[in-house]
């Protein structure tokens, strides 16, 4: 007789008067045992000489070993089953919640690549019995578990600024490679650093009108990625009022004004506006880049009101600081001492008496 399956020893005879069905019910078998067997799909009228053999499932493999060969790969090895190993045609290896699988050609080892670092994997191995014309049989799988090694995370990606104000920057980013190894992120700016777990961070207490560079790096247990940086300028704000406004070196026509930059939003100051007026004339204003200015062409002995404010780049003016000054009076003409000048000497002789007469001139006055 010709057997339809040749690698299993237990042979079964079929009733020659029956026609095969799909699948073949057990009552069509002439003999019955407790062995595991596979129903054969037959699509022809069975002949008396046809026979079918029982197909027991392979036994379980032994000693599944996992040898990590890096953060993203491992070698899997096992031993041949002790039972029903005659018709084994290969082995099926499963990992990643059985979502990944590979079949070996009857070898007792397999290398798994492209794993994720810092990740626990369950690896299962099952023996396979595959024969033409019948369904494939698998043994009960045998499993082992391990966690891949730590790897340095890749640089963060898509580092962007979500919102900018005069005093804050809100940034966000995305992880790239070896995400399972990331324990947090380091964010640095303006000589300051902080460690966080989120993928976004609000940097506060910044100066307005100021450029900041921000660096972000992914951190693992024993290493960190290269940092990625982004530059942003905080928004423009109105400067605070100038402080310590003073008048010095006041004369009848000039006065020196000095002041100190604002305490608040001083980084937004572009220039200063200086204005002055007395009680009767129109106000006069000028712009300066300095924290001092000399006002000229004033009137003597006059009260003036002087105001100074800070301007930002868009022309917004701070609250004005003011001060009153009083110019000096005009000085009196200087007094010049009179020096007589002798212009003539006359000698008069009278009755034997002599006398000398001096003629002196002082500023046109004859003395």
From TrEMBL:
Output the Pfam families linked to this UniProt entry.
fn3
Q: Does the keyword Glycosyltransferase apply?
A: no
Statement: the UniProt record of this protein carries the keyword Zinc-finger:
no
Q: Which UniProt keywords apply?
A: Membrane, Repeat, Transmembrane, Transmembrane helix
SUPFAM superfamilies assigned: Fibronectin type III
Q: Which InterPro entries match?
A: ECM_Regulatory_Proteins, FN3_dom, FN3_sf, Ig-like_fold
Boundaries of each Fibronectin type-III domain copy? 57-151, 155-239, 241-332
Annotated membrane-spanning segments are: 341-360
The name under which this protein is listed is: Fibronectin type-III domain-containing protein
Instruction: Give the species.
Output: Timema bartmani
């Amino acid at each position: 007789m010709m057997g339809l399956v040749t690698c299993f020893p237990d042979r079964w005879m079929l009733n020659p008067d029956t026609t095969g069905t799909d699948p073949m019910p057990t009552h069509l078998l002439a003999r019955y045992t407790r062995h595991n067997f596979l129903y054969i799909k037959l699509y022809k009228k069975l002949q008396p000489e046809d026979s079918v053999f029982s197909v027991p499932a392979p036994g379980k493999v032994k000693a599944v070993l996992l040898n990590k060969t890096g953060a993203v790969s491992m070698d899997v090895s096992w031993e041949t089953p002790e039972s029903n190993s005659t018709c084994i045609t290969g082995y099926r290896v499963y990992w990643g919640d059985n979502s990944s699988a590979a079949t070996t050609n009857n070898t007792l080892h397999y290398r798994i690549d492209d794993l994720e670092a810092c990740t626990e994997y369950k690896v299962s191995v099952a023996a396979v019995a595959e024969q033409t014309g019948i369904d494939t049989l698998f043994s009960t799988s045998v499993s082992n578990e391990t966690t891949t090694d730590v790897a340095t995370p890749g640089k963060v990606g898509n580092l962007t600024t979500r919102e900018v104000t005069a005093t804050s920057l809100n940034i966000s980013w995305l992880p790239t490679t070896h995400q399972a190894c990331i324990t947090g992120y380091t964010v640095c700016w303006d000589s300051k650093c902080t460690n966080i777990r989120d993928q976004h961070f609000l940097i506060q207490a910044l100066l307005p009108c100021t450029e900041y560079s921000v660096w972000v790096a992914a951190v693992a247990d024993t290493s960190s990625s290269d940092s990625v940086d982004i530059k942003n300028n905080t928004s423009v704000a109105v400067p605070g009022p100038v402080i310590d406004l003073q008048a010095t070196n006041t004369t009848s026509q000039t006065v020196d004004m000095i002041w100190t930059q604002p305490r608040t939003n001083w980084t937004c100051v572009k220039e200063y506006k200086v204005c002055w007026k007395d009680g009767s004339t129109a106000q006069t204003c000028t712009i300066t880049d300095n924290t001092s200015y000399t006002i000229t062409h004033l009137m003597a002995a006059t009260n003036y009101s002087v105001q100074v404010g800070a301007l930002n780049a868009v022309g917004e003016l701070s609250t004005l600081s003011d001060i009153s000054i009083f110019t000096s009076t005009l000085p009196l003409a200087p007094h010049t001492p009179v020096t007589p000048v002798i212009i003539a000497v006359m000698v008069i002789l009278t009755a034997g008496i002599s006398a000398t007469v001096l003629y002196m001139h002082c500023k046109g006055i004859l003395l």
